[in-house]
């Protein structure tokens, strides 16, 4: 069965925003939506519970997605603060193991809420 993450060559270059072909546009939209989901600590816990965070291919995919922290991609994120923070934390094996804990999830949720209050 083929890997849902593709092979490492598939991670070589990010799509162009906004893309010029239908295939590039679809890839851009899928990756943008997935990265946006990383702002949700409960989704991170789900990924850990389903063992995605234990898969080296998935970890490489998360590393590849760090291009979202640079212009021009950054402007497409709805919640850049928590999204990029969680993407950065996911690079650490200790965090990938800890996120399964409800206490860690609740702490991330509190930090996100507090950041929203501080921003306003």
TrEMBL record:
Protein origin, superkingdom: Eukaryota
Region spans: Disordered: 1-22
Keywords assigned: Activator, Nucleus, Transcription, Transcription regulation
Chief site of localization: nucleus
Record bears the keyword Ribosomal protein: no
Subcellular location: Nucleus
Coiled-coil positions: none
Entry's family note: Belongs to the Mediator complex subunit 31 family.
General function of this protein: Component of the Mediator complex, a coactivator involved in the regulated transcription of nearly all RNA polymerase II-dependent genes. Mediator functions as a bridge to convey information from gene-specific regulatory proteins to the basal RNA polymerase II transcription machinery. Mediator is recruited to promoters by direct interactions with regulatory proteins and serves as a scaffold for the assembly of a functional preinitiation complex with RNA polymerase II and the general transcription factors.
Entry protein name: Mediator of RNA polymerase II transcription subunit 31
Species name: Sporothrix bragantina
């Amino acid at each position: 069965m083929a890997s849902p993450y593709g092979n490492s060559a598939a991670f070589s270059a990010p799509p162009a925003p906004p893309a010029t072909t239908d295939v590039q546009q679809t890839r851009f939209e899928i990756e943008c939506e997935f990265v946006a989901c990383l702002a949700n600590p409960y989704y991170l816990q789900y990924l850990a519970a389903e063992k995605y965070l234990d898969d080296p291919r998935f970890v490489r995919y998360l590393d590849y997605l760090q291009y979202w922290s640079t212009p021009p991609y950054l402007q497409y994120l709805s919640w850049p603060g928590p999204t990029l923070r969680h993407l950065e934390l996911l690079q650490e094996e200790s965090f990938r193991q800890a996120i399964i804990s409800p206490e860690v999830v609740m702490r991330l949720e509190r930090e996100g809420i507090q950041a929203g209050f501080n921003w306003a």
